[in-house]
Specification:
This protein is mostly beta strands. Helix content is 7%, strand content 25%. The longest helix has 6 residues. It has 2 helices and 7 strands. The protein is globular and about 45 Å long. The strands form 2 sheets. The chain has a 4-stranded antiparallel beta sheet with strand order 3-1-2-6, with no helix packed on it.
Length: 161
């Protein structure tokens, strides 16, 4: 059954409107990024039966942690939840990984740029980053020195046709 996702949001008319709850955060959690995934409504049962459809859908959620680790996960592994939900695990936080620094919606042919708090910058092809399930730690994307941390990741927008 498909839901009309746009109907779950309300239009507020005044500047003093307080808005609606998007996600219910735990005490030590905070929102660090927001991405809009422009994709068709897909029946996950149909995808499991038809591998050709799955192979044609090459959008990934790329998760990067502050200690230089990351992974890309098919967007099909993320279920749609209602407003006010607690969310689902995207990448495991651990002493090795550190906290999540950034998440992006990417495709296999995209490239990203990572930057650190010490001024180091690295350009990386998304296809070089291992694809893994949601509930995993990821792999080394950038080796950091000392107390250096990843602070930002952007997708390179290539407008050349």
């Amino acid at each position: 059954m498909h839901k009309i996702y746009g109907k779950k949001l309300r239009l507020f008319k005044g500047r003093s409107s307080k808005g609606i709850r998007g996600i219910l955060l735990s005490e030590n959690d905070k929102v660090i990024s927001l991405s809009i995934l422009d994709s068709p409504k897909i029946d996950s049962k149909l995808i499991k039966k038809n591998e050709k459809i799955k192979n044609g859908l090459n959008k990934f959620i790329l998760s990067i942690t502050e200690n230089g680790y990351g992974k890309r996960t098919s967007f099909l592994e993320y279920r749609v939840t209602n407003r006010g939900g607690k969310g689902i695990i995207g990448i495991i936080n651990s002493p090795r990984n550190g906290d999540v620094a950034s998440t992006l919606v990417v495709e296999e042919n995209d490239e990203i740029i990572l930057s650190t708090d010490k001024g180091s910058v690295m350009r990386c092809a998304v296809k070089e980053i291992r694809s893994a399930g949601r509930n995993t730690q990821g792999v080394t994307i950038k080796k950091l020195s000392g107390s250096e941390k990843v602070v930002s990741t952007i997708k390179i927008e290539d407008n050349i046709n």
